[in-house]
Design brief:
By secondary structure, the protein is mostly helical. The protein has one domain: Methane Monooxygenase Hydroxylase, Chain G, domain 1, CATH 1.20.58. Helices cover 52% and strands 2% of the residues. The chain is built from 19 helices and four strands. The strands form two sheets. The chain has a two-stranded parallel sheet. It has a two-stranded antiparallel ribbon with strand order 2-3. Helix 4 packs across helix 5 and helix 11 packs across helix 16. The protein starts with 45 loop residues before the first helix and ends with a helix. Keywords: Dioxygenase, Heme, Iron, Metal-binding, Oxidoreductase. This is Indoleamine 2,3-dioxygenase subfamily.
Length: 463
């Protein structure tokens, strides 16, 4: 028998993700295109929608809980489309968080069966936890003022807010606008990755330039937060509604949240936070921006190379298809290795001008992500750190946090001592995010790791 001496076939590289296969749009990114469903029209679901219609009135009158307690227990099996499922999930998330946090100092420790059971069921279908997430609060909670108009921030509006304030509307649509403008960079970046496989240097650079135009918009959009969202309104009225049931003892929820009629005991879920957006994790994967645990170093200096556990945890709160997109993207990302390979040839290559242009545009894209994270730190400083040092404005006593001193007395004493020590050492005291994280070290570390990814910082800083 003659041995087979033919060359084995070349191993096929994994295809790049197709955006639409993961509920991602080449036009609006992770935000639904053309826009989310604003209402469930089936008569069966009108008990939910009718309460949502009166949400702000019922919260202000302290009647929301009694209305929800009397809701019928509805099945989610009649929801026929993904848009309907997303609307149901969004609706139940907002009703649940309004139920828990919307009665002043009286924080509900459980939610009733007519709300908890369908909420868990629709969450299972969508592969996302039953808690207010970035997806339900932002991605699936917007509309166009003029359905025929542009997808810019002036034409965006929320479907519903929990406080009924213009400040909450602006807070939400700034995030949506970031998603839309930044999301339009995804397809050019995937096209750049395809050109990498073909070693088509000019085409890689051309696609990076298109992506750069979009990336240059996102930090400017985030900075518009200051225009119409008052920091005091955000911190004292809006922020508590975003809180989850994990690490929330200081907000009056020490033992998690009980879902009546759902097995498994009290739930401990992270609340809604922009860290649950899939947009910037996508950029991190594409540009090779790595994030590591900082071992508690508030200056952001990493002492180890363990992947950042909080960022990994936040993925669990993204919609299932978006998580799958990130996993696929991580397996095929090739841009940074390609740019590094070309950079090694910069001095000796006849294509040095093209290589330098490639590196400059790669760095310029990374720099825009770094600038966005700079702005995010400024937003957190103004809207959370500064407000945390102050008490609520006069007449806003209902929005204070009521802590059970019997449970929290020793913990509070320890936190106070730690904060005093940090102030003596010139550090900001630790401030907890709605997701339960220690905000400022986390954000600063992400920003610094982004900046460290640039290859020619003195050049890219001028872009």
């Amino acid at each position: 028998m003659v041995a087979d001496t033919t060359t084995p076939p070349t191993q096929q590289l994994e295809e790049f993700p197709i955006l639409e296969n993961y509920d991602v749009s080449s036009f609006t990114g992770f935000a639904p295109y053309p826009y989310p469903l604003a209402r469930l029209t089936q008569p069966y679901y009108q008990p939910w929608e009718e309460i949502m219609d009166q949400l702000n009135i019922l919260i202000d009158a302290r009647l929301l809980r009694s209305a929800i307690d009397q809701m019928p227990l509805l099945e989610v099996t009649r929801l026929e489309t993904k848009r309907e499922q997303q609307r149901a999930y969004t609706l139940l998330c907002i009703l649940a968080h309004s139920y828990v946090w919307g009665s002043g100092l009286d924080i509900a420790q459980s939610i009733p069966e007519p709300l908890a059971v369908p909420w868990q069921a629709i969450s299972d279908i969508l592969d996302i936890p039953p808690v207010l997430t970035y997806a339900s609060n932002d991605l699936w909670n917007w509309k166009l003022k003029d359905p025929q108009g542009p997808y810019d921030i002036e034409n965006l509006d929320t479907i519903v807010t929990m406080t009924g304030t213009a400040d909450e509307t602006w807070f939400d649509i700034v995030s949506v606008s970031v998603e839309v403008e930044g999301g339009a960079a995804l397809q050019p970046l995937l096209d750049a990755m395809q050109a990498v496989r073909e070693d088509d240097l000019p085409t890689v650079t051309a696609h990076l330039k298109v992506a750069l135009l979009q990336l240059s918009k996102v930090g400017k959009i985030l900075a518009r937060m200051f225009e119409k969202c008052d920091p005091a309104v955000f911190y004292w009225k809006i922020r508590k509604f975003l809180a989850g049931s994990e690490n929330m003892a200081t907000l009056g929820l020490p033992n998690g949240l009980e879902y009546k009629g759902v097995s498994g005991g009290p739930k401990h879920h992270m609340g809604a936070t922009a860290g649950q957006s899939s947009l910037f994790p996508s950029f991190d994967l594409i540009f090779g921006i790595d994030h590591y645990d900082s071992n508690g170093n508030s200056a952001g200096a990493n002492t180890g190379k363990a992947p950042n556990t909080l960022l990994a945890k936040m993925r669990a709160y993204m919609p299932g298809p978006h998580r799958a997109f990130l996993s696929h993207l991580g397996r095929v990302a090739n841009l940074r290795d390609y740019v590094l390979t070309k950079k090694a040839l910069l001095e000796d290559s006849e294509h040095s001008v093209q290589i330098k242009e490639l590196i400059e545009n790669y760095d310029a894209c990374v720099h825009q992500i770094k600038l966005f994270r700079d702005t995010h730190i400024q937003v957190v400083t103004r809207y959370i750190l500064t407000q945390a040092r102050r008490g609520p404005p006069e007449g806003w006593e209902d929005y204070r946090v009521k802590v059970d001193t019997n449970v929290e007395e020793k913990k509070a004493e320890g936190i106070k001592a730690s904060q005093d020590q940090q102030k003596d050492e010139g550090h900001e005291p630790a401030i907890q995010g709605t997701g339960g994280s220690d905000l400022m070290p986390f954000l600063k570390t992400n920003r610094d790791e982004t900046n460290a990814t640039k290859l020619l910082p003195t050049i890219s800083a001028n872009k």
